[in-house]
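PROTEIN DATA CARD
Card holder: Arsenite methyltransferase
Chain length: 525
Origin: Cyprideis torosa
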Amino acid sequence: MKYYGCGLPFPEAVEGCSVLDLGCGTGRDVYVLSQLVGPEGRVVGVDMTDEQLAVAREFQPWHEQKFGWKNTEFYQGYIEKLDEISALKEGDFDVIISNCVINLSLDKKAVLSHCQRLLKEGGEMYFSDIYASKPVPEALRRDKVAWGECLSGALFWRDLYAYCQELGALLDPLPVQASAIEVGDARLKNLISETCPDGLEFASVTYRIFKKTDKTTSTSALTQEVKYLGSIPGSTDTTFCLSHGRKFRKGETVSVTYELAEVLRMSRYKSHFEFLGDSGSPINPFTILEKTGGSCGSGSPEQEKKFSADNIPIHCIIHVRNTPLHWKFSVSACHEPRSLTPITCARCNLSFCLKHRHPCDHKCTAVSQQQSILQAKNDASVAFLARIQARFSDKRDKGCGGSKNPATAQKVALMRLKQRAKLGQTGVAEEEKFFLEILPPARFADSGRAAVPIIMSKLSTIGKVIDVAADVLDVPNENNREGAKMLRLFNAQGQAMSEGESLECLLEKAALVNGGSLLLEYAEE
Ligand SMILES: C[S@@+](CC[C@H](N)C(=O)[O-])C[C@H]1O[C@@H](n2cnc3c(N)ncnc32)[C@H](O)[C@@H]1O
Ligand SMILES: [Zn+2]
Ligand SMILES: [Zn+2]
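Structure generated from the sequence above:
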């Protein structure tokens, strides 16, 4: 196998990530990344040359057998026309690498534009390629030997910055590593000194180019303090080198631009950094409102006592630690901003902030006044219940893993959903994701509409799941209209999920499982 390439091809912290390799050749980097991202990750190689891809694909079965997972894909195509490869979806990738390929492209800006589209917010291009110290003169660009040496198409490094700025959603490129390229060929050397009397140099450079988050546009003049936790796996010491001149040492608090902080916060690096409270970031006025009325968890003195510090949901604490904003602590137990109008819990009648309004979010101690799970009771609904349960047994008969032991079957179902689910609340943080398969309402199933896998935040309510599911399945949803036939979600036992409950909450009550199926149906109440 022949190796090409320049620079360090592998970015840090890619475990579980989706990675795209542009101009993957025979797939050498794809297979290394396949190991680095692990079984939960995905590595896609694209190349225009069928012969290269044939070699790459030849190794696929061997790698799958040896390591026990299948996470590589190869597609033939042009990196200037990545929209023609339907498997590459907008916002799908954490990292895009390319090793000595961009110099060969005649439309480098088109390549960057596709990368901008395919990256997640906070995602990163990690490109190793050949750059020139000034625009490469025409004579050199037309020279066959220079082309073969990857010099003809070398991009003037400042043009890379210009392209990124023109494309709009990319941060300025950050050089990670650069090494000089000596031109050995005597004739080429002459040609260079003839056409560029005051010199022309070439270098192999690795750049990181981050995709901005939607918050990074207007605040780039501000700074934010961050602390690296020293936790990026595989780094030999406790320093993370983001780019030349920008090293993060474990435990050291440093100031970075607000837009870089936002990118780190959105990116796969987020768990390796602490984002410190007092920053120059814009202060949301709604988080610093003076206390005028009730506050989160307020009620009678005894009631307030019940909402003690150990009742704080853990996500709330994490949220505070990572926030750059000046939160107003409305009561000592709650670190969330006080909402403008207090929201009252229907069970305990205390007032809560937006985050804590659901009973399970403030570990409501009051006895349930309303049944959280509605069970069919009368004769008419018994027939309805039977129809719902039949829908789930139909599915099992079609061989969806019903015969294995339930725990294994559930694991398998979750794994499959994770791979298939592309729609729903896709922007949610990995650890917050909840996967569901949604069966369509009977009248749509009868006309052939298939079940769809969706991604949800586990903090979302059933009401939200219904909206997302109806949207994805493209079925009418009139839940906001009075008197309309209500869309509801049912589990395999025929229980209707209560709209106000969060997925996390229902999981705790064992009313559903992550990776499970729910039926969307118009209720006959
Ligand atoms: C110098 S090789 C590098 C291969 C691989 N990245 C490596 O480091 O070993 C360049 C590769 O890019 C591919 N390539 C060049 N231009 C391309 C384009 N416009 N679209 C897709 N692939 C391209 C070629 O087929 C070739 O496999
Ligand atoms: Zn609260
Ligand atoms: Zn309550």
